[in-house]
Design goal:
The chain is α/β, with parallel strands linked by helices and about 375 residues long. The chain contains 11 helices and 15 strands.
């Protein structure tokens, strides 16, 4: 694809689950910001700042449009990454609202550790729910009254999805709980599963969806009264007195997003996200078909090898495996020497992959729209040699 023509012929990038490659239009937008309108957003009145404001506001709206959520009920805030966003929300929830903390067994360390820390800090129970093989959360018999639930909607080791997402959200709210969705692994190729999802908050990382390094929080407006502001700074207030201040998020409905945005933001990266969403939404049927075919071909190749043990039963652009009798880290090093970049280890999902499934260290291939047909042929050739 021409948007990734900077890749060498013998360079194969298969680590998109960590961070995707950036297409040329996104890189050019970031470059344009620094060269043509480098400025502080939402603070200045000169032309450069006005252009930055226009693009940043566009990014906020495009995120909601992508998820088909109304600005009357939701808002978009920007932060560092998914982990930071989840922690920012959990650490500011009013303690009296939290009677129990709930997560699932297949979580990335982002929610897994954050829920552990919150339960310990507040002295409340923490429940780790099971997931079915297809990724559905098992909620039979669970009561979510006073619970804060944090779960992913796509796993970062085999892409299994939270198929009963809307059912889970409905159940949590019916019982009187709060639910935060980790959408880091879904936004690049499965953002449609989050459309019109009525979660209290959705956290994701823009750098996994072809944008620069950036975190995003999409939150319900009625979540704000349930928070105690603990992270405070410039850009968050309408006025300041000697011993008090007026929060913009409270006094100005148009600036409610500042509740999660202390200090100066990564304006260039937000501008890049604006373009990345346009780029993502313009993917053609041919682009999607190529990704599906590359995924299927590589999945079938790996499953056809007796000593290769795959995690999960379905083909997915994110796939993990180990080879009997071979150390995965050595495989990763061998692949790297041949120009194939892949991740090895437990991918920050230590509890499930190591403690529950007892897998050895794994190899992960994560494909993207940057993946070419010839990349798959090269991986098959190199893996065959290994």
């Amino acid at each position: 694809m021409k948007d990734f023509d900077y890749l060498g012929e013998k360079t194969v990038y298969l680590d998109a689950a960590c961070q995707s490659l950036r297409p040329r239009p996104v890189v050019e937008a970031l470059e344009k910001y620094y060269f043509e309108h480098n400025s502080c957003g939402e603070r200045v009145k000169y032309p450069w700042g006005e252009e930055t404001d226009r693009l940043v506001e566009g990014a906020r709206k495009k995120v909601l449009k992508l998820l088909k959520l109304s600005s009357r009920e939701y808002f978009t805030s920007f932060t560092l990454n998914t982990t930071y966003g989840i922690n920012l929300i959990l650490n500011q929830l009013k303690p009296e609202l939290v009677k129990k903390v709930v997560t699932s067994e297949i979580e990335h360390n982002s929610p897994f550790l954050a829920t552990m820390a919150l339960a310990e800090k507040l002295g409340v129970p923490r429940v780790v729910l099971k997931r079915r093989e297809n990724g559905e959360l098992i909620i039979d018999g669970e009561n979510f009254a006073g619970a804060v639930v944090v779960v992913n909607c796509a796993a970062n080791f085999d892409g299994r999805r939270l198929g009963n997402l809307k059912e889970v959200v409905k159940k949590v709210h019916k019982d009187g709980g709060i639910i935060v969705i980790d959408a880091a692994q879904a936004m690049s190729h499965y953002h449609d599963m989050l459309e019109k999802t009525e979660a209290d908050a959705i956290c994701f990382s823009a750098h996994k969806m072809y944008a620069p390094s950036l975190g995003v929080i999409v939150a319900r407006r009625d979540l704000v009264p349930k928070l105690e502001q603990r992270s405070i700074g410039g850009g968050m207030v309408d006025d300041v007195f000697e011993d008090r201040y007026l929060l913009s998020a409270v006094g100005n409905k148009e600036h409610i997003y500042t509740i999660f945005e202390p200090g100066l933001q990564a304006w260039g990266e937000i501008v890049g996200l604006n373009v990345a969403i346009d780029w993502l939404m313009s993917r053609t049927k041919a682009d999607k078909k190529r990704l599906e075919e590359c995924t299927r071909e590589l999945d079938e190749f790996l499953r056809s090898r007796d000593k290769v043990k795959m995690v999960g039963n379905e083909a997915n652009p994110t796939m993990s495996f180990y080879v009997e009798g071979l150390d995965s880290h050595l495989i990763g090093a061998a692949l790297g020497k041949e120009g194939v970049m892949a991740r090895t280890g437990y991918f920050c999902a230590h509890y499930y992959l190591d403690k529950v499934c007892h897998y050895p260290a794994l190899v992960r291939f994560s494909l993207s729209y940057a993946t070419r047909e010839e990349d798959i042929e090269r991986v098959k050739k190199v893996m065959g040699k290994i």
